Write a sequence for this structure.
């Protein structure tokens, strides 16, 4: 569709806007433009899939036109930030306030219009993937939050402008009447009796690209409607959009908190804008709610949503300090700490054919090796495509059959099976089913003896399963698990080392696994990674794992010994930092292993 391609072009243009482009804008216009640009950039996959769908029916084409109108309004608003309106030199504080109020109203309209368009996305007309739908749901949640933050919405004005735009679009350029300048007496009437309404129409119409005659028409119709209904002169603001009564009800119930407390910005997830429950740090140093940044990554994104910088690695480091501050803040304010919802409230049609999937699962147990291999490869592909497929495959008992294939002597079948389990584990509820099916021991066996690709995917599967805390304990206590990961970290391919590092980091969040990792010899490959300047991100990955390991005195002593026993400069450095006192204490009171490491370090320091 030509209009879909136009939407894609607008999204690219807005997404390219950065902080430097908005340097001339004052707050809050600059911040509003940046946030809007980030949200619009998340729609790139949606407009790409809409464009790929090709020509649709009338409903599809109408929706695409509606989306383009919303995106054009967003582009005009961002343009305000690039060349912001400024009061004259003689202007006072009241003029500054007026500019802020005007842009705030326009921002509310832009977010309302974009949210309304996304709410009406006709799923039956486009083959929207689950991953893209999840991104759309995220953007809608963010836009709703923005509207709530900005206060009441002039939905009567918004709707009227939206309808006029739709009429103009549907009529086409030939059918439009030539624009006429409004009569002076009519404009004077508006100015005297309905100044507030006229100003709202003017601002919303400007950001929508309407002419003066259309502005006058909208104002006239609004005033006439209000007077006929016997209502006050200004439109009644409402707290949420009026696209759907059911959605309106649920949204108002969420917002209706008379004693609600303003949440500090640092406590909100930049993606969901909700109070964070499980904050984690990504490689750029930004903090997000774990569930939302994990979903962002699972959708194939490899950039930081807030800064747009490339993620050097996909490690999610728990931000314990911020989590503690959030809990303290909740306690002080007397509010319930936030809990993560199990679903986003969106419903999708079943994406897979149950009968076909059940037939594939039966073939996993076929007496023919070729049939087993083919079925495993097909299931691997299906599990990668959508959440619905992951659910259907689990319900069809694919997981126990795949676990059995992990012991196959055919390496290709083994590789397909472990990768299928990895893809199935993306759906959180499948993680428990995979562990209950007894998958951990055979996955570790694949990690030790499989092909390099199978070993890489086995490490990634261990990472995915270890996202559940109980699984960290079970995996770490399984004989050979951490040793196999350390071996891959030491001698695997570049991707294998990365997968092993990510899995080890996550496992070592659990205290007992830190000691197991150090005893398994993790320090040797980590030291090599610190010296490896050829692999981008290797040093950061090694330091991240070391930072977790060093939260234990015994491990800290072992790490220092590894760093210093053959490096006089490092040894002198810890001497200057006053290591003798804590090492002497550790040599007296630590575990047997800690005493040995501390004593050895003290000996090296004495020789120095």
């Amino acid at each position: 569709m030509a209009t879909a391609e136009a939407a894609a072009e607008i999204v690219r243009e807005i997404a390219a806007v950065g902080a430097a482009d908005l340097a001339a804008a004052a707050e809050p216009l600059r911040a509003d433009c940046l946030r809007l640009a980030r949200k619009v950039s998340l729609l790139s996959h949606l407009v790409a899939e809409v464009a790929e769908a090709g020509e649709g029916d009338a409903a599809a084409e109408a929706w695409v036109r509606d989306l383009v109108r919303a995106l054009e309004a967003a582009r005009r608003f961002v343009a305000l930030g690039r060349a912001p309106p400024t009061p004259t030199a003689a202007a006072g504080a009241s003029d500054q306030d007026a500019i802020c109020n005007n842009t705030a109203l326009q921002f509310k309209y832009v977010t309302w219009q974009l949210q309304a368009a996304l709410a009406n996305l006709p799923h039956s007309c486009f083959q929207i993937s689950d991953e893209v739908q999840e991104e759309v749901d995220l953007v809608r949640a963010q836009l709703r939050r923005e509207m709530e933050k900005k206060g009441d919405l002039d939905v009567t004005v918004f709707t009227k402008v939206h309808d006029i735009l739709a009429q103009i679009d549907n009529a086409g350029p030939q059918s439009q009447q030539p624009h006429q300048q409004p009569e002076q007496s009519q404009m004077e009437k508006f100015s005297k009796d309905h100044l507030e309404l006229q100003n709202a129409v003017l601002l919303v119409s400007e950001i929508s690209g309407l002419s003066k005659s259309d502005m006058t028409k909208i104002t006239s119709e609004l005033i006439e409607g209000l007077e006929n209904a016997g209502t006050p002169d200004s439109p009644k603001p409402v707290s949420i959009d009026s696209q759907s009564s059911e959605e309106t009800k649920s949204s108002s119930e969420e917002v209706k908190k008379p004693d609600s407390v303003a949440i500090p910005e640092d406590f909100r997830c930049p993606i969901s804008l909700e109070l964070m429950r499980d904050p984690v740090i990504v490689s750029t140093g930004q903090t997000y709610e774990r569930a939302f940044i994990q979903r962002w990554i699972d959708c194939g994104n490899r950039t930081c949503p807030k800064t747009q910088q490339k993620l050097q690695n996909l490690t999610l480091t728990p931000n314990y300090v911020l989590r503690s501050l959030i809990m303290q803040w909740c306690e002080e304010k007397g509010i319930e700490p936030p809990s993560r919802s199990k679903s986003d409230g969106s419903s999708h049609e079943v994406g897979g054919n149950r009968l076909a999937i059940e037939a594939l699962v039966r073939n996993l147990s076929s007496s023919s090796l070729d049939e087993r291999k083919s079925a495993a490869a097909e299931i691997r592909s299906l599990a990668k495509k959508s959440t619905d497929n992951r659910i259907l495959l689990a319900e069809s008992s694919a997981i126990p059959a795949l676990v059995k294939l992990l012991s196959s002597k055919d390496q290709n079948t083994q590789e397909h099976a472990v990768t299928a389990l990895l893809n199935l584990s993306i759906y959180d509820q499948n993680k428990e089913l995979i562990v209950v099916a007894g998958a951990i021991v055979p996955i570790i066996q694949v990690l030790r003896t499989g092909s390099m690709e199978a070993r890489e995917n086995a490490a990634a599967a261990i990472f995915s399963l270890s996202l559940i805390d109980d699984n960290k304990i079970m995996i770490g206590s399984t004989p050979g698990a951490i040793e196999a990961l350390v071996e891959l970290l030491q001698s695997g391919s570049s991707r294998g080392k990365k997968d092993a590092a990510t899995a080890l980091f996550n496992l070592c969040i659990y205290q007992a696994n830190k000691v197991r990792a150090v005893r398994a010899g993790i320090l040797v490959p980590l030291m090599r990674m610190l010296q490896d300047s050829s692999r981008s991100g290797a040093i950061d990955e090694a330091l991240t794992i070391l930072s977790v390991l060093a939260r234990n005195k015994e491990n800290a002593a072992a790490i220092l010994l590894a760093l210093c026993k053959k490096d006089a400069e490092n040894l002198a450095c810890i001497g200057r930092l006053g290591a003798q006192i804590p090492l002497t204490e550790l040599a007296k009171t630590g575990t047997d292993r800690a005493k040995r490491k501390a004593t050895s370090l003290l000996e090296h320091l004495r020789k120095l």
Q: What stands out?
A: The longest strand covers residues 279-281. The longest helix spans residues 93-119. Confidence is low (pLDDT under 50) at residues 173-193, 229-259, 340-352. Residues 439-521 form a domain with the Leucine-rich Repeat Variant fold (CATH 1.25.10).
